[in-house]
Amino acid sequence: MANIFLTICVCLFLGLSECQAGENNITESDSTPEPGCDTTTNSLWKQLGALEERLNVTVRTLEEKLDANEKKLAALNSTVTQGNKMIALWFPTFFVAFSAARPVMNGNVAAGQADLPLVYAHVVSNIGNAYNPITGYFIAPVNGVYYFSFTSYFWASEGATGGSLYQNGHKVVSWYGFSKVHDVSQSNSAVLLLRAGDAVNVRVWAGYQIGDNANRYCSFNGFLLFSM
């Protein structure tokens, strides 16, 4: 497009130069200019005007496409921002997970007249150090949704086994079993919405029992699903 414009400009210049030269060669007795000069000049001006219009149309078209692309880019940036927020929500920059088992014991242990908080002293993993193997409590480090599970074991005998998962002292889910002939294995789980500082632990009900041995059948596990 630029080459065409330049060519026309050169032609216009040459045409005007020829006309000027023709006018200079006209004698005083002949004051009539060459008939082709005005025609050539007008033609070149018309071509130049048409070219200018085409250039203006092209510029407007490019501006419209640029504006449309800028809007698409803004929408894409917004989508990326939302995606980053979702990634940050589902994949927090910190991680919390633990798994612990009861210490080695043989036979059943009975709770007294009060619930017996279980201490899972054998720590398998404790990412984030939110679980305390001395007290048996998990303390939520951040607001979020957490998953917990526990398992229990009871050697066949007189009595029964039963207990619950507690959140801030409130019973959430439980287990129960009884058999004089067969050993009883139980488990349960829950998804909890916790605030930072909330406490979760497992307790055997007053008057009930729990058993284990070196195989470590009794465990307490949990991890952060996502923060809020």
Fraction of residues in H or I helices: 25-40%
Count of DSSP strands? 12
From the spread of the alpha carbons, the general shape counts as: rod-shaped
Rg over C-alpha atoms, rounded to the nearest angstrom: 44 Å
Largest sheet: 5 strands, antiparallel
Q: What is the N-to-C order of secondary-structure elements (H for helix, E for strand)?
A: HHEEEEEEEEEEEE
Count of DSSP-assigned helices: 2
**Which CATH architecture of the largest domain would you pick?**
Sandwich
Overall pLDDT confidence? 83
Major sheet: arrangement of strands:
4-1-12-6-9
Beta-strand percent range: 25-35%
Annotated CATH topology of the largest domain: Jelly Rolls
Distance between the termini: 58 Å
Structural class: alpha+beta
Uncertain regions spanning at least 5 consecutive residues:
none
What is the C-level CATH assignment of the largest domain? Mainly Beta
Q: Give the tally of structural domains.
A: 2
Structure description:
Residues 91-228 form the C1q domain. This is C1q domain-containing protein. Keywords: Coiled coil, Extracellular matrix, Secreted, Signal. The chain is built from two helices and twelve strands, in the order H-H-E-E-E-E-E-E-E-E-E-E-E-E. With 228 residues, the chain is an alpha+beta fold. The chain folds into two domains: 2-27 and 34-90; 97-227, Jelly Rolls, CATH 2.60.120. The strands form three sheets. It has a five-stranded antiparallel beta sheet with strand order 4-1-12-6-9, with no helix packed on it. Helix 1 runs antiparallel to helix 2. The two termini are 58 Å apart. The model has no long low-confidence stretch (mean pLDDT 83).
